[in-house]
Amino acid sequence: MTDSTTPRRDGSAPVPPPAAPSPSDVRAERRRLVESIGAVRRLLSERRAFEVADQRRLQHEARRRKRVEAAHGERLHRIEEERARQEASLAHRLGALDGERERREGQALSVLRRQSVERALGSTYLTASEVNGIGAGLIRSLSAQGIRTAADFDDVSWGKAPNGKGGDVLYLHRTKGGRIHINGIGEHRGRPLLEWRRAALARAEARAPHKLPPDERHRITEIIEAERVRLRGESAEVPRTAEAARAEAVRLHAEALGPLDGAASEAARLAAVRRAEFDTMAERLGDLQDRLSAHIEAYGDVGRRVRRAQKRALRPVAEVPRPLPGIPSPRTPGDAATGVSLTKGTGRPDRRPVPGVRASPGWLVPVLYFALTAVVGVGELGGNTAHPYTMIASRLVALAAVAELLRLWLPRVRTRSAGPMPDGTGWQTSGVFLALTATGMFEDEQSDVFGAACVVSVLAAVLFLAGTVSRMVKTDDRAGESSTEPA
To answer: Would you state the pLDDT for residue 125?
Structure first.
């Protein structure tokens, strides 16, 4: 065996072995590593809030972009609807021009015939020789009342006398409105007078023109053709107007998306920078944890006070929240549902698992209470008899509470899957306990506790809802991700 103090063959002085560090130095180095890990972990703990805020930013950007796209689509839809409406209206008006000529010619001919008949009736004067029984005196009486020609009246009728005395008298209806009575004109003279007017009207209608003059027909044709040209011009202008409106809509859409794209690019750049900082922190944390593990393997335990701190320091780092599905993200262009880890892939083997905090054995107390309630029910002691529905419902609720608590508590009390109970479980348990208590108070027939039972039931509902919301939004430390377990 060679002595370590034996001189070397080259004559140089022997190198003494490195001196082992003192226990105080080991503890100091251990504390320094634990404190460094704690500092980096505190900085790295901000990444979860950063990722959640970044997901909200992406969701907000997606909503704004969706609103812009919806407004652009609605604008284009209105443009197309207006174009189709104008084209259909113009096509209908162009088609209607084919029968417009006949309609206008018929209207012009009707006006021409009416004017001709009115002129003929206005030139047919009433004379004593034209109507039997009408003498010069009656002619003067009719003339004094404005009836001189066949155009001045159009009908006769019977009615009460103007002074209200006597029987019915014969009235002549003026063409311009109103009626008159001439003394001496009754049924024997009124009927020949009306027949004379009808005969004059028949002669006037027979002499009225039955065709339009050529110049009038030519004028109507020119009007129709001018209207046709105008409508065709408007029909040709509709696509150009719609295209101009569409180009304006595209310009407005681009102007609305420009600021969104710029803000999104800048926010993505800043997020990438911040994420790179977190990745550097995660890599630094991994290195420190490896050094702490190596230090523990080299020097072992250094005391009870440092033991808990180093266990907390060696806890595995939880993953950050997963990106929301369906939201485009610059950091995950290929897969929006891929989880983002706090640590970078360094090729190192996984660190040794460190047990976490176990669930408290005190949870057996509510488990035993609910189990007892499932057996005896609520409101069934002291001579009380609960409603059958209450007996069944209370036992079912108690059984569900026992099953849920055991499902949550048993895995978290084991060594390999240890962890705290999910946040909000205590509030939910308290809410169920108070709900069963309020049910027993409602079923109590021997004391007047209705008001207190109402207060307890409201408090139970508030606690249960608060616990449910807390379990939905808080993080399950054992699983390392958001807890979505149902209540």
So the answer is: 82
Q: What is the pLDDT of residue 8?
A: 53
Q: Residue 252 pairs with which residues in a beta bridge?
A: none
For the chain, how many structural domains are there in total?
3
- What is the sign, positive or negative, of the torsion defined by CA atoms of 301, 305, 311, 317? negative
Per the rule left: phi > 0, alpha: psi between -120 and 50, beta: everything else, 168 is: beta
Distance CA 337, CA 332 (A): 8
- Please enumerate in sequence order all residues whose Cβ is within 8 A of that of 68, keeping only pairs 6 or more positions apart, or say none: 253, 256, 257, 260
Is 413's pLDDT higher than 90?
Answer: no
What is the residue-wise DSSP string for 72-129? HHHHHHHHHHHHHHHHHHHHHHHHHHHHHHHHHHHHHHHHHHHHHHHHHHHT-B--TT
The DSSP element (H or E) to which 168 belongs, if any, is: strand 168-174
Better-scored residue on pLDDT, 19 or 474: 19
Summarised one tens digit per residue, pLDDT across range 142-154 is: 878 778 887 778 7
Q: What are the φ and ψ backbone dihedral angles of 111, each rounded to 5 degrees?
A: -65, -45
Contact 286, 40 (CB under 8 A): no
Neighbours of 459 (CB within 10 A): 16
pTM of the predicted structure, to 2 decimals: 0.45
157: helix, coil or strand? strand
Tell me if residue 354 falls in helix, strand or coil. coil
Domain that holds residue 366: 361-482
On whether residue 7 sits in a domain, the answer given is no
Residue 193 tokens read as 């007078």
Same domain, yes or no, for 58 and 201?
no
Helix (H) or strand (E) holding 391: helix 388-413
Q: Are residues 445 and 374 in the same domain?
A: yes
Looking at the fold, whether 375 and 291 belong to one and the same domain comes out as no
Dihedrals φ, ψ of 449, to 5°?
-125, 30
Q: Output DSSP code: residue 381.
A: S
Question: Both 432 and 303 in a single domain?
Answer: no
User: In sequence order, what DSSP letters do the residues of 411-464 get, joined into one string?
Assistant: HHHSSTT--PPPTTHHHHHHHHHHHHHHHHHHT--SS--HHHHHHHHHHHHHHH
Residues 125 and 177 in one domain: yes
- Taking residues 74-100, what's their average pLDDT? 89
Q: What pLDDT is attached to residue 319?
A: 66
Work out the average pLDDT over 207-232.
85
**Confidence (pLDDT) at 328:** 46
| H or E stretch covering 159 | strand 153-160
Q: Number of helices and strands (H, E) in the chain?
A: 10, 5
**Do both 50 and 156 map to the same domain?**
no
Last residue of a domain, one of 169, 192, 207: 207
Could you tell me if residue 218 is inside a domain? yes
Q: Are residues 314 and 324 in the same domain?
A: yes
